[in-house]
Amino acid sequence: MMKKKGNQEEFKVKRLKRQSKKEENIEKLYKLNKELKQEKEIRQDRYSKKREKKRIFGIRLRLALAFMVPIAFIIILGITSYNKASEAMLKSYEESSFQALKTTTNYFELAMQTVELRLNQLKGYENLKNYYSGTYKSDPITEMTTYKNLQVYIETTTYSDNVLANLYVFSKRGNNLSNYGSMDLSGAELVEAYLETEEGKRDEKENGAYSWSGKHQFVDEHFVQDKSKITIPYAFSVSSAFFGNGFKQIGYMVADIRLDLFQKKLSELELSENSIFVAISKDGYEVHSNEAEGVLIADKSFYTDALASSELSGTSYVDFNGEKHLFLYSKATKSGITVCGLVPYSYLISQAKAIRTSTVIYVLIAVVSALFIAVIMSTDMGSAINKIIVALKKASEGDLTVSVNCQRKDEFGMLADSANNMISNVKGLIDKAQKVKDTISLSTDEVSDSAKQLLIATQNISTSIEEIRQGIVQQAEDSEKCLRQSDELTTRVNQVSYNVTTIEKLTEDSKAVVQQGLVSIDILRDKSEETTKITNNIIGDIESLEAESESIGKIIGVINDIAEQTNLLSLNASIEAARAGDAGRGFAVVADEIRKLAEQSVRASGEIATIISSIQGKTKLTVTTVQKSENIVKSQGNALLNTIDLFQKIDASVGMIAKELTEITSGISGIKVAENTTLNAIESISAVSEETAASSEEVDSAANRQVESVSKLREATLHLEAETKELNEALNQFRI
Predict the structure, then answer these.
(1) How far is CA 255 from CA 171, 205, 239, 261, 505, in A?
(2) DSSP state of 57
(3) Structural domain for 228, as ranges
(4) Cα(698)–Cα(452) distance, rounded to whole angstroms?
(5) Which residues face 338 on adjacent strands?
(6) Which residue ranges does the record assign to the HAMP domain (predicted)?
(7) Element (H or E) spanning 250, and its range?
(8) By C-alpha distance, which of 666, 625, 639 is closest to 504?
(9) Number of CB atoms found within 10 A of residue 264's CB
(10) CATH code, domain with 508
(11) Helix or strand run (H / E) with residue 645
(12) How far is C-alpha 612 from the chain's CA centre?
């Protein structure tokens, strides 16, 4: 009873605390409404300021920026087109110029091979070899006629060939040959002087091979021109030794290739006035596309690098005379000349610059057009939007008598009509809101009074339910104590049952072990009988072994007799050999060996007899030992029979114990049944008490929730009153 009174007092204290908290919450709610109003006014001020700032970013600027987006893509397209065109043109110029340069190099190589072919024909000309080999030295007239014919042949060959410019032939004997002059020295002197020069030493060493160079300085120094004949300028020169009859080196030939041939082809390669294309010999002599002379490329580092490279042709960008140039080169493998070119980079990108200029002009036109269109469109749209903004601003301030006057037929006209409809609908909404506000004010007063009365009744119900709940809780605690004591009794009975079950199981295990022991003893008895049989067999085998040993002794006696007879025979043989003298000396040796063998046989048979005697002694000891083990096995069999009797008695005792344990187990089962019946009854009482307590708690919880709901209803009523006042103040701002 004391506990119940204490619980009631605690419940009253809690209820008073709840009421005080509710009143505090109502006061907080009023404060919160005021704070929300202030925050709302602050947010509206901030929003209006932000809208003023955003107006700077108006539709005109947006349209201008919108038009600038495609213009930006046009600019990007122009830049990309210019870059792609520049790359494509540069690549096209590089490839076309490079291919033309290699084609020209191949053409020069072919022309120079043609000159070598002419010299090969001249070397194989029979009259030439005969003349310079001295075939006609005994016939001066024929020799002179042959010389004139050779002179005519050389002139005709030179003038009729569009590649060959000049041709010189000189030898140790005979007169020199040339298409437009002669030499200032005789043949032998000229050859001797030529062999002292680098050119002569080279040709003598090459032994008939062709060597190309830029100029033939030796020939130019000793040549005397015939003024009646035409001189043809040459680009490069080739020289070689030639052979007479008997394949003997008798003279030298020098041939020039035409200069105009090279100049024409090099000029065809020039892409602009500032382009430079030259052909350079192995000794650094340059041939230009015009009449210019001197060195332009051969002394430059990029040329020496290209010459040292393993590549036969290539391109690169180099700096030449302060400007960027495209450098191209191609090497002729047989003649050794290199065709080079320099093309200004400014010329290569000249057409791309025209594309860039056109792109810039078109982009500027597009920008100006877009800005002009954006200004016109934004001005037109801005006037319509400003009308709508002015009307909506007045409506937002509470003046709902305004309207938007816009005669446009586009989307802005539709927007103006929608704004007018919105203002008209807001008027109707405000009118209805005022009527609803009056109705809400009356309903709020009635709800507030009802909530007060309902709150008092609900609190009284909650107090009564709390007292019922406390009595049920006390009953549940008593039932729980009884249930705990029953649980302890159940635990002890279960422990006894468990111990009996364990003993019963151990008894069954012991019985099984006894049965296994009987089986093992039966097996052991069988093994003992088998051991006895084996022992008897061993004794029989040992006795047989002893008999065999005696037979071996008899054989050894026979061997000893044979050895004695052999010894006597060897002695007789020795006597007979001594009588025979030198003729029987060999027979004496044999007899001596036979005697030794007989002695060894006697010794061996003696040793065997000793071993057999030892075996017979050990055999007798083994027989004695085996007989002892047979007696032990018999004693072991008797012990096993006694053990079997003991195990059978143990088995019978274990069976009696198992029967008694079964009766104990059945008694414990009866106790458990009665115990379970009692336990179920207590659990039913406890369950009913718990359910009753839970139901009372649920009813109490429902009553508390109802109290809270009524409190919230009162709070909502107060809040609704405050909102109704605010709504009235807001509606008074509008003019209808």
Answers:
(1) 15, 18, 6, 15, 130
(2) S
(3) 124-256
(4) 24
(5) 280, 331
(6) 379-431
(7) strand 249-258
(8) 666
(9) 11
(10) 1.10.287.950
(11) helix 585-731
(12) 89
For the domain that residue 250 is a member of, what is the CATH number?
Answer: 3.30.450.20
Amino acid 577: pLDDT:
73
d(CA 424, CA 403): 9
Parts of the chain with a pLDDT under 50:
1-5
Tell me the β-bridge partners of 223.
183
| Helix 2-54 and helix 411-580, axial crossing angle in degrees, nearest 10 | 110
> Which among 270, 173, 175, 283 is positioned nearest to 239, based on CA atoms?
283
Q: Please, which residues have CB within 8 angstroms of residue 270's CB and are 6 or more apart in sequence?
A: 276, 277, 289
Measured CA to CA, the distance from residue 131 to residue 121 in angstroms comes to 16
For the chain, the 3-state helix, strand and coil shares in percent, each to the nearest 5, are: 75, 10, 15
Q: What is the DSSP string of 55-85?
A: TTS-HHHHHHHHHHHHHHHHHHHHHHHHHHH
What is the C-alpha separation between 582 and 594, in angstroms, rounded?
Answer: 20
Measured CA to CA, the distance from residue 698 to residue 695 in angstroms comes to 5
Please give the tally of structural domains in the chain.
Answer: 3
Domain termination site, one of 239, 256, 273? 256
Within-domain flag for 183: yes
Determine the 3-state secondary structure of 163 from DSSP.
Answer: coil
Determine, yes or no, domain membership for 357. no
The β-bridge relationship of strands 223-225 and 234-243 is unpaired
- Percent of the chain whose predicted confidence (pLDDT) is above 90: 14
Taking residue 507's Cβ as centre, other Cβ atoms within 10 Å add up to: 20
| Predicted local confidence at residue 479, as pLDDT | 64
Which uninterrupted H or E stretch holds 249? strand 249-258
Q: Are residues 559 and 642 in the same domain?
A: yes
Do 220 and 208 contact (CB within 8 A), yes or no? no
Helix (H) or strand (E) segment spanning residue 318: strand 313-320
Residue 435 is classified by DSSP as: H
Q: Nearest to residue 278, comparing CAs of 250, 236, 319?
A: 236
Token reading at 714 = 């009162």
- Answer yes or no: do 49 and 129 share one domain: no
Among the three residues 216, 235, 256, which one is the final residue of a domain in this structure? 256
Cβ-contact 337, 31 below 8 angstroms: no
CB neighbourhood size of 357 (10 A): 11
Q: What is the pTM of this model?
A: 0.45
pLDDT in tens, 290-299: 777 778 898 8
The answer to whether the beta carbons of residues 406 and 412 sit under 8 Å apart is yes
3-state class (DSSP) for residue 124: coil
Give CA–CA dist 389/539, Å, rounded.
138
DSSP secondary structure code for residue 584 in this structure: G
Q: What's the pLDDT at 440? A: 72
Q: Quote the pLDDT of residue 257.
A: 93
